[in-house]
Amino acid sequence: MTVPDWLADAVFYQIFPERFANADPSLDPDDVVPWGSTPTPDNFFGGDLQGIIDHLDHIVALGANALYLTPIFEADTNHRYDATDYFSIDHRLGTLETFRALIAECHARGIRVVLDAVLNHCGNGHWAFEDVVENEADSAYVNWFSVEGFPVTAHPTPNYRTCSGCYYLPKWNAYNPDVRHHHLDVARYWIDQGIDGWRLDVPYFINHAFWREFRTAVKDKSDDLYIVAEEWRSPVEWLQGDTADGTMNYTARDLILGFTADRDTDAYALAAGLNALQAEIPAGFHRGMLNLLGSHDTERVLTRHGDDIEAALLSYALLFSLEGAPMVYYGDEVGLTGDNDPGCRGTMPWDEETWNTRLLDGIRTFAAFRAQHPAMRRGRQTAVALDADTIAIVRAGEHERAAVIVHRGEGTTVDVAAVPELAGLEEDVIVLGRRDTASLGGSA
Fold it and tell me: Which pLDDT value is given to residue 429?
């Protein structure tokens, strides 16, 4: 088992490519809607790969050094979780040459790039599924899917296996060696184009035998490649050394937001939950965890906090204090709002006059603090509740300790001398209250 060492120093930025930046209008579909319009499940705004290239300086300035891109392969929808050709860049995003330019520009800036591996299902426009629809039992690909009978029918209920009953997402038959061969070829092909890892979409819908093959194929290319699994529950099944290097840490997200947004979790419960999660994660996998507060599958962070900027800042302070790689979902750093899909998939506002600089400056501060202190990136993590509303995340490295203290009330004074875990940390600590009125007190 080798979890890439670079993850300890990583800060991720997640991009939904269709909604990040439109740099090449010539690629826009005919029905493109104006940038900034209300997002719907079906509309297109024209975001493309060149738009990402053009705004890499913003990502670097935020303090991020890794990208996770939701799907970019040829598909029929704006989200592209319905691939029709896994070996082609979607024509509305650019070309393979544009993608290679993105990789080159990212790597020149020290930014790693992780793509989305959507291998449980494809789109009903995929060439193999279309062949089954046309040729039925005579199709060479009939066993690439699980079709109950012919003709293939999508309505009112699909007579083939799908992802969660969605008719336009036929499920691959991952028990078929030809399907596994196709999927592993996909993994290797994009690694050869220069990517730095894969995020596994709904991996819990595919047998672990396939993911063990997938890991072998990826790690045979390089041990430095990252594999991170989507997981909304306990991460442990993916952290046995034979599938993933880490998971999307929705468990930590739930704990943090329970404290800062919902306020149904006090500091004692938050500390106990974080420490229990830390103990549950097997040794060696902590740096592989992808820690997040929001994504394309959740409401926006500021929306979850009821538009309370100060409370949202507290959640980001905690996010950047945890062991594992923090991830910011595009637009959250400037105060973009929206409910869950499709509301969370609005366009990135590039008029800086509209940005919430309080939030942006705060996240930059947390990223800088993490970058400046090796202990905040590589030290072991301990959560300590100082009272019901105040929690400290202490990181202890070989030669340094550092901490982040968060108070969700209107202000407090933290006596570091009274807390053994904080003794001697006056200079290497961020203390944050709802109005920045929390402060250090006493002496160590």
Answer: 79
Q: How far apart are CA 314 and CA 406, in angstroms?
A: 6
Report the 10 Å Cβ neighbour count for 100: 14
CA distance 185 to 86: 10
What's the N-to-C CA distance of the chain in angstroms? 41
CA distances from 69 to 17, 38, 52, 66, 123 (A): 7, 22, 10, 10, 19
The dihedral over CA atoms of 174, 177, 179, 185, expressed in degrees to the nearest 10, equals 120
DSSP 51-74: HHHHTHHHHHHHT--EEEEPP-EE
What per-residue confidence (pLDDT) applies to 442?
A: 40
> DSSP readout, 352-401?
GGGS-HHHHHHHHHHHHHHHH-HHHHHSEEEEEEEETTEEEEEEE-SS-E
Q: Structure pTM?
A: 0.96
Rounded to whole angstroms, the Cα distance separating 444 from 426 reads 8
Catalytic residues: 201, 230
Blockwise average pLDDT, block size 10, the chain, 444 residues: 92 98 97 97 98 98 98 98 98 98 98 98 98 98 97 97 97 98 98 98 97 98 98 96 98 98 97 98 97 98 97 97 98 98 98 97 96 95 94 91 89 70 74 59 38
Residue reference for tokens 């050869």: 192
Residue among 376, 394, 396 at smallest CA distance from 386: 394
CA–CA separation, 356 vs 334, rounded Å?
5
Q: Is 150 exposed, middle or buried (0-12, 13-18, 19+ CB in 10 A)?
A: middle
Under 8 Å between Cβ of 67 and 112: yes
DSSP-based three-state secondary structure for 254: helix
**Residue 364 CA neighbour count, 13 Å, CB half:** 12
Block residue for tokens 């819908």: 205
